[in-house]
Design brief:
The chain is mostly helical. The chain has a domain of 32 residues. The protein is 47% helix and 0% strand. The protein contains 4 helices and no strands. It is elongated, with a radius of gyration of 16 Å.
Length: 78
């Protein structure tokens, strides 16, 4: 097949996934007993996943999990 074009989508151009990110973070937060609001979600725009999780844990007053699960910006400990 001769390809003549392709579609390149930056998040939000063709498909807006922001609501799905919110739902995923909200479910994770709820599983940890943390109330996660739309206002808090707005503060996570442009923030890495690791730092987003850290902020959610901090908002929930759960700094112990942050220290145990993460070792800096490189993600979960092995």
């Amino acid at each position: 097949m001769n390809k003549k074009a392709f579609i390149f989508d930056l998040d939000g151009v063709i498909v807006d996934t922001a609501k799905f990110h919110f739902i995923a973070w909200q479910r994770l937060a709820a599983s940890l007993g943390i109330n996660f609001t739309h206002e808090e979600n707005e503060q996570l725009k442009g923030v890495s996943r690791v730092n987003s999780l850290k902020k959610i844990l901090e908002w929930g007053g759960n700094k112990t999990i942050t220290a145990e699960v993460f070792s800096g910006e490189n993600g979960p400990k092995e």
